[in-house]
Design goal:
Belongs to the ExbD/TolR family. Pfam families: ExbD (PF02472). Part of the Tol-Pal system, which plays a role in outer membrane invagination during cell division and is important for maintaining outer membrane integrity. By secondary structure, the chain is an alpha/beta fold. The chain has a domain of about 90 residues: Nucleotidyltransferase, domain 5. It is about 40% helix and about 15% strand. The chain has a four-stranded mixed sheet, covered by helices on one side. About 10% of the residues are buried.
Length: about 150
């Protein structure tokens, strides 16, 4: 018996590293990163209205329709030069009223042989949904292309 005990004591310890727990930890971390990565894009705060760009060229057969959205979510339109919403307080309208007005303007321009360019001027504090609502209303009115007007930085 003593001989067997001595033989056991002379064995060298196994020096292999067990990597299974490390693999488990890495898989858990991978799952955590995969779940949280799509959420990181939504947390970025942006201030988009100030952009430097060149003015678009105008031709004589084009009329410019500008839709303005104020901070209180009222809509204004102007055919021609830029909109001065301070002077157009009596022309404030809701989204359905604006859609109807744009439909009439587009129809009249098409009958007169003029192409209509439509631009949206959204107040900096207006939520994204209001601008998208205006774009949806313009699409219902038959407008295919819409430009967004920004301020130079």
């Amino acid at each position: 018996m003593a001989l067997i005990a001595r033989a056991r004591n002379k064995r060298k310890p196994v020096a292999e590293m067990n990597v299974v727990p490390y693999i488990d930890v890495m898989l858990v971390l991978l799952v955590i990163f995969m779940v949280t990565a799509p959420m990181l894009n939504q947390g970025v705060k942006v201030d988009l209205p100030k952009v430097s760009s060149e003015a678009l060229p105008q031709d004589n057969n084009t009329q410019v329709l500008t839709i303005s959205i104020k901070a209180d979510k009222t809509y204004y339109w102007n055919l021609g030069s830029e909109v001065d919403t301070e002077k157009q307080q009596d022309r404030a309208m809701t989204l359905p009223q604006m859609t109807d007005a744009v439909t009439k303007i587009i129809r009249a321009g098409t009958e007169g042989g003029k192409r209509t360019q439509v631009f949206i001027r959204g107040d900096k504090s207006v939520d994204y949904g209001s601008v998208m609502g205006a774009m949806g209303g313009l699409q219902k009115a038959g407008v295919g292309n819409v430009g967004l007007i920004t301020e130079a930085p």
